[in-house]
Amino acid sequence: MIQNSRTNTSLSAGLSPELLEHMRERFATIKDDVASACRRAGRDSSEVLVEAVSKTVDVEQVLAASQAGFIAFAENRPQELVRKLNLLDQEGISVPRFDMIGNLQTNKINAVLGRAALIHSISSLHLAQAVSKRSVTRSVVARVLIEVNISGEQSKSGFSTDELWASLDELLALDGIDIQGLMTMAPAHDAARARQTFSGLRELRDELRERSGRALDVLSCGMSDDYEIAIEEGSTLVRLGRIIFDQNYTDIH
């Protein structure tokens, strides 16, 4: 839940009951789906963080989702992450966590350092080195995930498996970044390939653990259409946007 330092902010006072009810219904349904997927996989639902991807909505929807029970949010554009955090701060409102997802340009690194709780999309050695350099300069440590293109689709960014193995020692030696785990995206509208992608990420993580000695506990994979499959295959963080914020999203029970 949010922590609010003012008793009646303009944002919270202006939230419609219909919006809050929508968010509460989606939160309850998603919570049940996560629990069911975890039972099928023999996991505990406390192992999975649901992250509300707020890139298409404004700050009022973020606040409503937070009041409904969502505790983590994500943006794919640094300027939007900064804008929403600033608006919430002006109202005396804090949400527990905002992450940076999506492609991160090197000239936008400074905008997210110290603001994003986790950077999901370290997609190349060059980007990792740039984040490392900026973090050291600012005396911070950036928590990051390595983005891996498990499916091999040309339209997707990230390290190939071979590139990651070749770069592993250099990545692990970088100062100023703390590699928490891996992230991937699955092919859309193909449950079988999605499952193969998610299981491939888990298997790669297990191999990297053995070689590196790092925990790499975070597996960020699974979105609105395939998050239950991702959880069954080991995801610890699912990134949900449409299923939370789109009131016309129909693939929900």
Could you characterize the architecture of this molecule?
- It is a single chain.
- This protein has helices spanning 10-13, 17-41, 59-68, 78-90, 109-112, 125-137, 161-173, 191-212, 227-232, 242-245; strands at residues 3-4, 49-53, 73-75, 93-94, 98-100, 119-122, 142-147, 177-183, 218-220, 237-240.
- The chain has 253 residues and is of the alpha/beta class.
- It has one domain (15-245): TIM Barrel, CATH 3.20.20.
- Helix 2 (17-41) crosses helix 3 (59-68).
- The longest helix has 25 residues, at 17-41.
Offer a quick outline of the entry.
With 253 residues, the protein is of the alpha/beta class. It contains 10 helices and 10 strands. α2 (17-41) packs across α3 (59-68).
Please tell me the overall pLDDT.
Answer: 92
CATH class: Alpha Beta
* Total domain count: 1
β-sheet strand percentage: 15-25%
Please give the count of helices. 10
CATH superfamily: Alanine racemase
Radius of gyration: 18 Å
Secondary-structure blueprint of this entry?
Elements: E1 3-4, H1 10-13, H2 17-41, E2 49-53, H3 59-68, E3 73-75, H4 78-90, E4 93-94, E5 98-100, H5 109-112, E6 119-122, H6 125-137, E7 142-147, H7 161-173, E8 177-183, H8 191-212, E9 218-220, H9 227-232, E10 237-240, H10 242-245
Parallel strand pairs: 2-3, 2-10, 3-5, 6-7, 7-8, 8-9
Antiparallel strand pairs: 1-4
